[in-house]
């Protein structure tokens, strides 16, 4: 059809001469596929007579963002509907997608399927979204992955070690040195550093070790630059704590840290940041991850990704040699 006179070059959209970019509805691309969906290797008469009229409207209501998601949802719903019919159940939305129905389907019809967990997850998500009366509990709140605190710079750490010697009392000087040596020297944060006794510092022929208790009991080698500090701190009766002396109050660490005095421009002393400083040191030094994880009391190493930005890059030539498996 020819355009009316005067419309040449103008946008058909109301409100201006420049066309606006409209984001297409994702369902628009996948809807034709959904309406034409026929499961492979399936009883075609059963699909056409009983199951298609149940599955297709549900898929359209789910509004999947793409064909891959739609296909997965379609197959799960089709298998569930087929099983429900074999059990003598009507294809009623609230019955088929009831939590008990879904769980019985997973544990009986899919008892030996390697995809059982995927089916369970998909059908639970579908049930929560589409049903109104089925007694679905809301999904649990996701547990955020623990984020490691940023490490101190070498300049900041050196300043802390110097300022530890300048605290107002012998007790505070000892506590500040112990926090720094146990944190930056052995990777112990608030879960462990207040529980270390002098007897837990073990001086060997060529190394100093710290015996660490729960959680994650282990023996940790101390960085050489902190060995002398810990040996000095351990020159007391074996039952004394390195932090807090003989005090057993749960608040001894926070009480001592609150009493430290640092210059106004200085960051605060944090056991979490001291631990990150120790971890970043080992990542920079190239300590193998299995040994580092064991010494740190880590179950896995994924959390160490938080520290990669603080690990200096190797020169290209050294990196290539490492990645080749050749000596640099």
Keywords:
single chain, mainly alpha, hpI Integrase, Chain A, 3-stranded antiparallel β-sheet
Q: What would you say this structure looks like, in words?
A:
By secondary structure, this protein is mainly α. It has two domains: 26-130, no CATH class; 154-324, Intergrase catalytic core (hpI Integrase, Chain A, Orthogonal Bundle), CATH 1.10.443. It is 47% helix and 4% strand. It has helices spanning 26-35, 44-62, 67-86, 93-96, 99-108, 116-130, 154-164, 170-186, 224-233, 252-258, 271-285, 289-296, 316-324, and strands at residues 201-203, 208-212, 218-221. It has a three-stranded antiparallel beta sheet with strand order 1-2-3. A hairpin with a 4-residue loop joins strand 1 and strand 2. Helix 2 packs across helix 3 (67-86) and helix 5 runs antiparallel to helix 6 (116-130).
Shape: elongated
CATH T-level fold name of the largest domain: hpI Integrase, Chain A
Strand content: under 5%
Rg is: 32 Å
CATH architecture descriptor text of the largest domain = Orthogonal Bundle
Instruction: Provide the low-confidence segments as ranges.
Output: 1-23
Number of helices: 13
CATH H-level homologous superfamily name of the largest domain: Intergrase catalytic core
Helix content: 40-55%
Tell me, what is the CATH class of the largest domain? Mainly Alpha
Query: Alpha-carbon distance between the termini?
Result: 74 Å
Reported for the largest beta sheet, the result is: 3 strands, antiparallel
Query: Roughly what is the average pLDDT, rounded to an integer?
Result: 87
Secondary-structure-based class equals: mainly alpha
* Side-by-side strand order of the widest sheet: 1-2-3
Order of helices and strands: HHHHHHHHEEEHHHHH
DSSP strand count: 3
Overall structural domain count: 2
């Amino acid at each position: 059809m020819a355009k009316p006179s005067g419309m040449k070059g103008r946008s058909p959209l109301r409100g201006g001469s420049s066309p606006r970019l409209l984001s297409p509805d994702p369902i628009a691309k996948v809807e034709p596929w959904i309406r034409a969906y026929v499961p492979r290797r399936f009883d075609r008469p059963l699909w056409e007579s009983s199951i298609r009229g149940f599955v297709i409207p549900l898929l359209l209501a789910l509004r999947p963002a793409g064909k891959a998601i739609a296909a997965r949802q379609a197959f799960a719903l089709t298998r569930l509907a087929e099983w429900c019919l074999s059990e003598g159940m009507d294809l009623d939305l609230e019955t088929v997608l009831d939590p008990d129905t879904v769980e019985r389907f997973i544990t009986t019809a899919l008892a030996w399927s390697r995809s059982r967990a995927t089916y369970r997850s998909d059908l639970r998500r579908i049930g929560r979204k589409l049903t109104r009366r089925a007694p679905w509990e809301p999904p649990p709140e996701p547990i955020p992955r623990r984020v490691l605190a940023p490490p101190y710079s070498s300049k900041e750490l050196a300043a802390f070690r110097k300022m530890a010697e300048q605290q107002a009392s012998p007790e505070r000087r000892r506590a500040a040195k112990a926090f720094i040596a146990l944190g930056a020297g052995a990777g112990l944060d608030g879960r462990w550093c207040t529980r270390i006794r002098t007897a837990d510092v073990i001086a060997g022929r060529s190394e100093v070790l710290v015996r660490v208790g729960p959680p994650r009991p282990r023996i940790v080698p101390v960085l050489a630059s902190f060995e002398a500090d810990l040996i000095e701190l351990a020159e007391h009766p074996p039952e004394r704590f390195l932090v807090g002396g003989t005090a057993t109050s749960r608040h001894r660490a926070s009480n001592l840290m609150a009493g430290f005095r640092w210059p106004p421009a200085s960051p605060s002393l944090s056991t979490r940041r001291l631990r990150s400083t120790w971890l970043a040191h080992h990542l920079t030094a190239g300590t193998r991850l299995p040994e580092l994880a064991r010494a740190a009391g880590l179950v896995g190493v994924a959390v160490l990704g938080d520290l990669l930005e603080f690990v200096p890059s190797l020169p290209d030539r050294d990196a290539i040699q490492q990645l080749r498996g050749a000596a640099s």
